[in-house]
Amino acid sequence: MEKKFTLPVLLFISNLLVAQVGIGTTDPTSTLDVNGTLRVRTLPAYNSATATKDSVLVADGLGNIKRVTAKQLYDNSIKTLIKGSFASSSPLSLSILSGSAKIPFDFAEFDVNNEFNISTNSFTPKQDGIYEISVQIKSSGVLSASTNFGVSVLKNGVIINRSNFPNVGVLGINVTPPIRNLSTLVQLTTTDVITFRANSDLISVSILATREDCFFTIKQVR
Questions:
Q1: Per-residue confidence at 6, pLDDT binned at 50, 70, 90?
Q2: CB of 160 within 8 A of CB of 154?
Q3: Which of the residue ranges 36-40, 54-58, 78-82, 134-138 would you say has the lowest mean pLDDT?
Q4: Which pLDDT score, from 0 to 100, does residue 11 have?
C-alpha cells in the first residue's frame, strides 16, 4: 500500500516547492507575495565590503523587492553639479545672427552627473527639479559706446533670463565694464534643454575664453 502513495505524495510536495505563496492575498504574483507590512525582529550586522557595494535591497512603486549596487543607488540620487567653460583659452569670435549667437561652451571642469553635452553645448537634466544657473562672459575687445552687449539663458530655445544693456560712453569712450553675467533659478524636467547665447547689435563679437572670465555653473537645489 505504501508504494501506491509514493508517487502522488512526491508530486504534491514538488508542486508545493514551485508554487507561489500568498500572505494576505489569494492571488500571489511572486514566489512569496505579502499583502501587508513586513517586520524583521533581528537583523544581524554584516560588515562585508562586497555586500555593501553589491547587495542593496530596494522596493519599486509596486512593492517588488530588487537588488541593486550601491553605485546605482548613488548615481540615481546624486544632484547636478556642473562648472563649464572653454577647452581653449584663445579669444572666441562669435558671428551674431538675429541679434544673438550660441556660446559654444565645450569643456566641463566637473560634471558629477554627466549631464552637459560638450558637442551640442547644452545641458539636459537627469532629474526633474529646481536648478540654479549662472553664466558670465567677457568681451575680449574694446566695444564702442552705445553698443549693445549681453548674455542670456535659454530653455528649449526660448530666452528665460537675460543680462543685456548698451555700453555707456564718456566723451565718446566706452566706460562700461566688459563683463556680462546673470544668475537665476529654473524649474526643469528631464526633457528640457538649457543653452547660453551672447547678445549684441554688432555683426560679430569677440569674447575671452579664459576660464576665470567666461564660464557657467549649474546646481540642482531641489
A1: low
A2: yes
A3: 54-58
A4: 46
**Main-chain dihedrals φ then ψ at residue 5, nearest 5 degrees:** -95, -5
**What pLDDT score does 112 carry?**
95
DSSP the chain: -HHHHHHHHHHHHHHHHHS-EEES-SS--SSEEE-S----S-------HHHHHH-EEEE-TT--EEEE-HHHHHHHHPPPEEEEE-S--S-EEEE-BTTEEE----EEEEETT--EETTTTEE--SS-EEEEEEEEEEBSSPPPTT-EEEEEEEETTEEEEEEEEEPPEETTEE-S-SEEEEEEEEEE-TT--EEEEEEESSSEEEE---TTTSEEEEEE--
Q: Residue 143's closest CA among 104, 172, 112, 183?
A: 172
Is-contact 154 216, C-beta < 8 A?
Answer: no
Q: What is the largest CA-CA distance in the chain?
A: 119
Rounded Cα distance, 208 and 222, in Å = 32
Task: Supply φ then ψ for residue 90, to 5 degrees.
Answer: -75, 145
Provide φ and ψ at 112, rounded to 5°.
-65, -20
CA–CA separation, 151 vs 217, rounded Å? 14
